[in-house]
Amino acid sequence: MNEKIKVGIVGYGNIGRGAELAVLQSEDMELVGVFTRRDPSSVKTVTPGIKVYSLSDAASMKDKVDVMILCSGSATDLPEMGPELAAMFNTVDSFDTHARIPEYFAAMDKAAKESGKLALISIGWDPGLFSLNRLYGEAFLPQGSHYTFWGCGVSQGHSDALRRIPGVKNAIQYTVPVESAMEAVRSGSEPELTTREKHTRECYVVAEEGADKAEIERQIKTMPNYFSDYDTTVTFITEEELKRDHSKMPHGGFVIRTGKTNHGANSHVMEFSLKLDSNAEFTASVLVSYARAIARLAKKGETGARTIFDIAPALLSTKSPEELRASLL
Amino acid sequence: MNEKIKVGIVGYGNIGRGAELAVLQSEDMELVGVFTRRDPSSVKTVTPGIKVYSLSDAASMKDKVDVMILCSGSATDLPEMGPELAAMFNTVDSFDTHARIPEYFAAMDKAAKESGKLALISIGWDPGLFSLNRLYGEAFLPQGSHYTFWGCGVSQGHSDALRRIPGVKNAIQYTVPVESAMEAVRSGSEPELTTREKHTRECYVVAEEGADKAEIERQIKTMPNYFSDYDTTVTFITEEELKRDHSKMPHGGFVIRTGKTNHGANSHVMEFSLKLDSNAEFTASVLVSYARAIARLAKKGETGARTIFDIAPALLSTKSPEELRASLL
Q1: Which residues pair with B275 in a beta bridge?
Q2: Which residues pair with B312 in a beta bridge?
Q3: What one-character DSSP code corresponds to residue A55?
Q4: How many Cα atoms sit within 13 Å of B12 on the Cβ side?
Q5: Which among A140, A248, A262 is the nearest to B21, CB-wise?
Q6: Which of residues 36-95 of A touch B (CB under 8 A)?
Q7: For A187, which DSSP code?
Q8: In this predicted model, what pLDDT tens digit does every residue of A27-73 receive, in sequence order?
Q9: Which of B117, B62, B60, B63 is nearest to B93 (CA)?
Q10: pLDDT below 70 — which residues of chain B?
Q11: Is B278 on the interface with A (CB under 8 A)?
Q12: pLDDT tier at A137 (50, 70, 90 boundaries)?
């Protein structure tokens, strides 16, 4: 029997909680504990009895953790904490600011090479599984185009933007892919689609008492970057309706590749989709599988930064290569 | 500029022809030629000017080919030719007799280890991309079930079975997934589905003049293994209709994984699907991408047999790791 992979979780928001659940259901893993910048005594874990450490004590646990799963935010936390932690631990994170990936990769690669550790960045579903499917599509159908649609799902950033509008008490925003645009893509016609043609935005808003709803709606629909380029609907609801009907955080989406072979004679469609009740829990499950892969590669002595593109699929599975060939191939 | 990957194609049926097209559109590859057991002068390649060699001359080309793509049949050809070729070349094949994969893997592994070459087996879409998606699904949603549906597409084996019935002049068989079964799967209810509930079989039959059509239909519908466990429809058509409406070889299918997180509180659906105008050309395109991966791994000195589970996605792409991170992640 192999030794269990000792996993630590840094950050305890929705993804950290999901990672706790996923590690505990993995028979080949042992959860060392949760590491937080908050007062550890203030953190109540989902599962009773999980140890909570101060992040400032992490250095003393260097030899007790095989992989740290970094469940912190991409905007400000990971760019700073990531390299610090990669200097001590093998890490897996879900850094998702697409435009800053090259820069973050370089910082993590430097830190991990110096420490002799591995740092796997940008794991989840986008970036993550969707990226993988974009790569597979381009590799197998080089004469073609790929399209990514998101939703139906909650966008945190857009929900936050709604809540910053004066008179808005609470709000949630759903990104919805336009079915007719997806059908056009699946037809293989490789359409050029504008932002407006690909997604609509549905806003459910709780207004403060006496607020000017028409003005709120106007501000939403004209907000640059967030809403003005989309067909946006605004529905005012009560706080009770928000709690009752909109408390889950579903998400998902589609990566569609269409392409041709034989000098254009034959068309092909590859499609990958996700429909998730809980964005955070699924993302965490993906992180935990990739933590398994990183623990295995670290044992072989590999160092430096990696992305999902570098990880052979077999490393994600608890099954042996023989079992995989016999049962899943 | 890197040297081009020198590729040979063994076997020149539909997949071999598709591989020729895919290699020629890959800028990083050079097609050395086609190797055949037939008289080379009798083989007319799709693209004029492709060299055709006798397979018996392959040994003399050992140093002129980086990867051989084996486009021969799984029933009798590959079990014999595969190990012989792996004793001389790096190989990629589409061995697809699921039940015999462990045995074939062992034979290829032995041959390739002895020759210091790499042998990648069972590449295509099932086994192949569908296998990958079964693995990903199981890894990310360990509490769940996966389902594979095939079609709508032409089954060669079933079409051959129809043609062996007395009085049948020509015939084609489509495997069709049952939409209501797929919807039940997508609901996350993890239904137990019988063979009959998952797929129907549609047969288009050209009868010989004066043949007893009722008897043909009875023989089809009661044929064990092939049709008796399915809801099968038989439609008699003319030879002209067969040629006009059924000359393409489309195929495709769906791998659906559903699973739960948070002790069953949240459901998730992962779905991968293919819709292919030409089964053979798409399969060949996948083989060619994996030939690229094998050429790269062989350069690193790896030897022995591999499956799709062992290949890191980045190896499939013509893009550099930096380009991949910037453009697809």
Answers
A1: A269, B252
A2: none
A3: G
A4: 24
A5: A262
A6: none
A7: T
A8: 999 999 999 999 999 999 999 999 999 999 999 999 999 999 999 98
A9: B117
A10: 1
A11: yes
A12: very high
